Amino acid sequence: MREPLVVAHRGASAALPEHTLAAYELALSEGADGLECDVRLTRDGHLVCIHDRTVDRTSNGSGVVSDLTLGQMREFNYGTDDAPAELLTLDTLIELALDGTDRPVKLFIETKHPVRYGSLVESKVLAALARFGLSTPASADHSRAVIMSFSAAAVWRIRRSAPLLPTVLLGESALYLGGGAATTVGATAIGPSVKSLREHPDSVDKAAAAGRATYCWTVDERHDVDLCRELGVGWVATNHPGRTKNWLAS
Ligand code: G3P
Ligand code: CA
Fold first, then answer.
1. pTM reported for the whole predicted model
2. Residues contacting ligand 1 via CB (< 6 Å)
C-alpha cells in the first residue's frame, strides 16, 4: 500500500504564522506533497488565503474579510512584529505551488461557507485555476489542484463546472462517512477529521470501494499518522509537514 501523502495545513503552520508565504515555503522545503489553504473573497472580489471570517486572529488589523478591499487587507501584518508577513493571495500561492519546487505539489483549496458572496467564490476559484491552466487536468490523479468544502453544494458546483477537477467533501456525519453525500455530489474523495476517522475507521475502505480516496485532517500526532497509514488514507493534512514526512519515512 502507498504511504499517505503529506499536505501542509495552512502551510507549515505549527512553525510559522498560518497562510503566510513563509509558512508554505517552509512546507515545500520540508518535503510536503501538498499545500492546504482556505480562501475567501474580499469586498472587491479578490481571493485571499485566510481561514476566519475576520482578519482579527491572524493579523494586527480588524474587520470582516468580505467588508474589506484587497488594498485595505494588504495594510495589515499577518506575521509577527519580528517577522512581518504580507497578506497571501490565491494567485501567489498557485505560483508557489507551480514554481516553488520541482515536485508536482498539489494545492488543496478549501472554500468556506456560508459566506456573503455565496457561489461566487467557486466561480472565482475556477477562473483563477483556468488562468494558470489548471482547470482541465488530464485526469484527477494528475491535477495540481483539488477543491474542498464542507458545503456539499459547493462541491457540486465545482463538479458540474469542472468535472475533471478532484474534489473533497469535508465532514463528519455518519451519512456522509457512509458515502451518501459524497456520492450525491460526485466528490472524488471524502474528508473526515482524524477524530471521526478514529470513530469510523472502516470509512476509508468504504470510500475506496466506491472509488473515492480519503483526505484526513488535521493529523498531528504520531499514533494518528500511523492509523492513517494502516487504513490506507491517501492524504494527511498536518500542521507539521516535515515531522510527518520523517515519521512516514521511518
Ligand atoms: O483541511 C481541512 C480542514 O482545514 C478543515 O477545517 O477549520 O481547519 O478549515 P479548518
Ligand atoms: Ca481548511
1. 0.97
2. 9, 36, 38, 51, 110, 170, 217, 237
The pick from 37, 50, 176, 218 for probing ligand 1's pocket by mutation, whose C-beta has the most ligand atoms within 8 angstroms, reads 218
Q: Which three cell numbers stand for residue 151?
A: 458545503
What distances in angstroms separate CA 179 from CA 31, 100, 136, 201, one per listed residue? 31, 35, 25, 13
Q: Would residue 200 show up in a list of annotated catalytic residues for this protein?
A: no
Choosing from 19, 51, 113 the residue with most ligand 1 atoms within 8 A of its CB, the one to mutate for a pocket test is: 51
Domain boundaries, the chain: 15-190
Superfamily of domain 15-190: Phosphatidylinositol (PI) phosphodiesterase (3.20.20.190)
Q: First-to-last CA distance in the chain?
A: 15
Rounded to 10 deg, the angle between the 152-161 and 120-131 helix axes is: 40
d(CA 71, CA 216): 35
Q: Looking at ligand 1, which residue's alpha carbon is closest to its atom 2?
A: 217
Strands (E), the chain: 5-9, 34-41, 47-49, 106-111, 145-149, 167-170, 189-191, 213-216, 235-238
Instruction: Tell me the mean pLDDT per 10 residues along the chain, length 250.
Output: 94 98 98 98 98 98 98 98 98 98 97 95 98 96 96 96 96 72 91 94 92 96 98 98 97
| Closest CA relative to residue 13, chosen from 2, 32, 5 | 32
